[in-house]
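Work Package 3 (structural annotation) set out to generate three-dimensional models for the target panel prioritized at the project kickoff. During this period the team completed the workflow that converts sequence records into discrete structure tokens, so that structures can be stored uniformly alongside our sequence database. As a representative example, we reproduce one entry of 234 residues exactly as it appears in the project archive.
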Amino acid sequence: MLRIFIITVLALTPSLALAQSCPAPLAEARKLVLVTPDTLTARTATLRQFTRAAPDASWTPAGDPVEALIGLNGIGWAHAFRGFARSGEPVKVDGDKRLPAGFFKLGRSFGFAPSSRPGYLQIVEGTTCVDDTNSLAYNTITSRASVGHKVGGENMWRMPVYRRGLVVEYPTNRAARAGSCIFMHVWRPGAKGTSGCVALPEPQLASLQDFADGGAVLAVLPRQALDRFKGCLP
């Protein structure tokens, strides 16, 4: 009888059943930032925003699509989502200049200027994101005073692209050199690609910071992979 009851409930609530089978953290997301390059080697992508009232509701567009700059060598599947890769599709490793594909929570906003945003990280002298796989601080934002000057990392206070941005909560793996310091940041004029981040013109990035307040999920997927997540995406 219990089995019959469960089957009946799922039959009556197909949208909920689909939501529960979608990859985390997408399954419970109410806000979505979808970044879709046309190919695995493309250096630009279309960024679209969506909202929904509940995990079993349909996605609704929020704003117009914008162009984003992505990895200089395109994209590769994040180590945590490598199970979705098809034959011949690369998996992200540190230093490959690929944006990781998968589903990631967007974390705190950051920038050079002070802000009253909840959880905001002001980039000050010494703010560093560690990309050194020999360091236990790998893939964390810390300070030079904490890790010293011999540890490899991005000196964020010296890099104009970080004058505004969002942290991507990237589930990396130090032993696998799975990638680190993934952000959404300012698109530098003349840049041909990023080292593995998503870059936007500053006005669009400021708008995205507003959108992401309260939580949002970033989905990075090549267009050829969209049909692997039917029922999960707009």
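The radius of gyration is 19 Å.
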